[in-house]
Specification:
alpha+beta; GMP Synthetase, Chain A, domain 3; three-stranded mixed sheet; 4 helices; 34% helix
């Protein structure tokens, strides 16, 4: 786990007080140098998402990670759930597609 991933997790833990938080560095799936920290997937389950539309949830996360998104983080795949939605989703973590521009 690199320093950017650690920082993202810490900021999201403090800002969302999540029931579940998973931050995955998916940079290796893209056309970037080895050990890059540019592409992340976030799964967050938080009561702060109750009664919020998806765009409002994403705005909340973007606000917490504004500095990183303005810098080294190029892409952020967000999967945000209220606790009820997470249990209704059978707690399945969505898989990410392969990068179209990464050579096979």
């Amino acid at each position: 786990m690199g320093p950017v991933e650690i920082l993202l997790k810490e900021k999201l833990r403090l800002g969302l007080t999540p029931d579940l938080l998973d931050v995955t560095n998916e940079s290796h799936m893209h056309s970037v140098p080895p050990d890059s920290e540019t592409h992340f997937k976030v799964i967050a389950v938080s009561s702060l998402f109750d009664k919020k539309r998806q765009v409002q949830r994403h705005q909340l996360v973007y606000g917490l990670l504004a500095d990183e998104l303005a810098g080294e983080v190029h892409a952020l795949a967000l999967h945000t759930y209220s606790p009820n939605e997470w249990s209704e989703a059978d707690q399945q973590i969505p898989s990410s597609p392969n990068c179209m521009s990464k050579p096979a």
